[in-house]
Each structure stands twice: as structure tokens, then as C-alpha cells.
């Protein structure tokens, strides 16, 4: 077990990266890929608004992150959209051209069951509104539908759990598996925005509610051998705090439907079948100048 706490995501990321390179517990070959691994890692980010990092040895992939966030918060699960940002996803799509790891679809669109038309998001939000001290405000990602032989996209995230304590909204997420280079880099910004979005939806009920910690419990934290040299270069260069500007407007409504800003972004993508550099830049500007506009009055 490894426990790391710190003020920012960059701090705990740097500590975990160093541990996986030099203080790992296991070396194995999962899916024929050599890895170094630590089991049962607990990361606590005390200020989850500091949710990305900067490093001269690895330019932060803002464009991919923007694309993934749009895809998630639109509630889509098709490979068509997300593969414009990374062809990697095409290898994981099912015969219908959909992906299991479509977190937004799982949280905002898919009903909990045939008998309960609420979504995971609506369940957690309603639970917190009904009872400020609830322990039932959970959202599920990996579910029974994903447990079948031959599944190429077995969802990595298990659940997120929200708590309101001492007028702060805390969030804990449990993952079965977390690749520190291709996974955690993008997963934590999404979890940070989920926490901020939940707070936004709760403010009419609890107007003094603040953002608390964001904690990750990683069953398997690992790094692939192809990234060992990159990790060393990043540690030598230094990994520093950075952030997506604080969420000041809603990306989704209480029912999980996307905002007009995200609908406009989606429209612009669909009008351009070829993902050009110009369009990527346009989307980058839209998402950071509109959806993630800083609250300058603070």
C-alpha cells in the first residue's frame, strides 16, 4: 500500500511517478506489456481545483483532454467522436461502434436499471439534497454489463462517492486499474470537474458549500516499460502545478443533459468530418473560454 497526500494533483502525481519507477512492489507482464506496479494506492488531493500539471519534458495534451471532456459531458459513447482525438479507441469499440468506458453515458444517460429510470448522477445528487449527511451518494461506472468474455474495454473506474462534511463536498473514487501516463493524467481532471459540477448543482440547497478533498483509491497503479524513460525525463525536468480554470457555469443540468455551450461544440465537430489542426484549436479555445471560464470576480 502507498499513501500520498498533497495540496495539488501535480504534487501527488510526481510522488507516485517516482515511486512507480524506483519503489515499485511488482514487475509483471499484464497483457504482454512489461509494467512496474504498486497495489492499493491512496492519493488525496487537498485542493482538487489544481487538477493538471505542467512539465517541459511532456507537453500536456490539452487537445485530447478537451475532446475527452466534451465526449463525457455530452453523454456520448460512440467511437466516432472520441477517435478524432485518439485512434487508440478504435481498437476497443464493440461491433456497434460504441465504447464501454464512456463515463458520461454511464453517469448521465444510462438508467440505473429497467425498474429505475434515474441515472447514476441523479441518484447521487438527489441523495445529497435529501440528506446532507448521507452515505449513499455514489455513482457507478463498471457494472455487470461489462463482465463478459472477450470484452476489450473493461471499465477501469468502479465508483465515486460524495460526502458533505463540515460544509465541504468531498469525493472519493475507486479504480481497479490506473495507468499513470495515459490514464491518470486525464482521469483526475474529469473527476475534479465532476466534483465541481456536483457542488454547482448543490449550491441552491447549500449556498455556503465549499470544495473539499478529492481522493483516489487505485487497486493497481502501474507504469508501462515504454514510458520509463519519459517518466525519468519528467522527474528530472520538474512537474509543476497547473489547472483548468474553475468551473463557473454548468456543463450539464440536474438531469445530466448537456449545456448549450457543449451542444454548440458538438455541432462544430460534426460539421467538420476531418479533424484538422484548425478545428482542434477552435475546440480548445471554445472549451476553455466558454465552458471553463474563470470566475474573475473572486
Main sheet overview: 8 strands, mixed
Shape label: globular
- Helical/strand content category: alpha/beta
Instruction: Identify the quaternary structure here.
Output: single chain
Q: Indicate the percent of residues in helices.
A: 25-40%
Instruction: Please trace the helix and strand order, writing H or E for each element.
Output: EHEEEHHHHEEEEHEHEHH
CATH class membership = Alpha Beta
The second-level CATH architecture is: 2-Layer Sandwich
Our count of helices gives 9
The share of residues in extended strands comes to 15-25%
Outline of the structure:
By secondary structure, the chain is of the alpha/beta class. Helix content is 35%, strand content 22%.
Question: Can you characterise this structure?
Answer:
The chain is an alpha/beta fold and about 300 residues long. It has one domain (about 1-60, about 95-245): Thymidylate synthase/dCMP hydroxymethylase domain (Thymidylate Synthase, Chain A), CATH 3.30.572. It is about 35% helix and about 20% strand. The protein contains 9 helices and 10 strands. It has helices at about 10-20, 60-75, 80, 105-110, 120-130, 185-200, 230-235, 260-270, 275-290, and strands at about 1-5, 25-30, 35-45, 50-55, 140, 155-165, 170-175, 180, 210-225, 240. Strands 1, 2, 3, 5, 6, 7, 8 and 9 form an 8-stranded mixed β-sheet that branches. Strands 4-10 form a two-stranded antiparallel sheet. Strand 6 and strand 7 (about 170-175) form a beta hairpin. Helix 8 (about 260-270) runs antiparallel to helix 9. The longest helix is centred in the middle third of the chain and has 19 residues, at about 185-200. The chain is globular.
Amino acid at each position: 500500500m502507498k499513501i500520498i497526500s498533497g495540496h495539488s494533483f501535480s504534487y501527488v502525481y510526481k510522488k507516485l511517478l517516482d515511486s512507480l519507477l524506483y519503489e515499485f512492489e511488482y514487475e509483471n507482464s499484464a497483457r504482454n506489456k512489461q509494467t512496474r506496479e504498486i497495489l492499493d494506492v491512496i492519493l488525496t488531493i487537498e485542493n482538487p481545483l489544481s487538477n493538471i500539471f505542467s512539465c517541459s519534458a511532456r507537453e500536456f495534451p490539452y487537445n485530447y483532454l478537451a475532446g475527452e471532456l466534451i465526449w463525457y459531458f455530452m453523454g456520448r459513447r460512440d467511437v466516432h467522436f472520441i477517435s478524432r482525438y485518439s485512434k487508440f479507441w478504435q481498437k476497443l469499440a464493440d461491433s456497434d461502434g460504441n465504447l464501454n468506458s464512456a463515463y458520461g453515458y454511464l453517469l448521465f444517460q444510462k438508467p440505473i436499471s429497467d425498474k429505475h429510470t434515474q441515472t447514476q448522477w441523479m441518484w447521487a445528487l438527489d441523495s445529497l439534497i435529501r440528506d446532507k449527511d448521507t452515505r449513499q451518494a455514489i455513482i457507478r461506472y463498471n457494472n455487470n454489463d461489462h463482465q463478459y468474455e472477450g470484452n476489450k474495454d473493461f471499465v477501469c473506474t468502479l465508483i465515486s462517492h460524495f460526502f458533505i462534511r463540515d460544509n465541504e463536498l468531498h469525493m472519493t473514487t475507486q479504480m481497479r486499474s490506473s495507468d499513470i501516463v495515459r490514464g491518470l493524467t486525464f482521469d483526475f481532471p474529469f473527476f475534479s470537474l465532476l466534483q465541481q459540477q456536483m457542488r454547482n448543482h448543490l449550491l441552491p440547497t447549500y449556498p455556503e458549500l465549499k470544495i473539499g478533498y478529492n481522493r483516489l483509491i487505485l487497486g493497481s497503479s502501474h507504469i508501462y516499460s515504454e514510458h520509463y524513460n519519459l517518466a525519468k525525463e519528467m522527474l528530472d525536468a520538474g512537474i509543476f502545478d497547473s489547472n483548468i480554470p474553475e468551473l463557473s457555469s454548468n456543463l450539464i443540468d440536474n438531469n445530466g443533459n448537456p449545456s448549450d455551450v457543449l451542444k454548440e461544440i458538438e455541432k462544430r465537430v460534426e460539421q467538420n468530418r476531418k479533424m484538422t489542426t484548425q478545428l482542434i484549436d477552435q475546440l480548445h479555445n471554445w472549451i476553455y473560454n466558454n465552458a471553463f471560464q474563470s470566475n474573475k470576480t473572486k
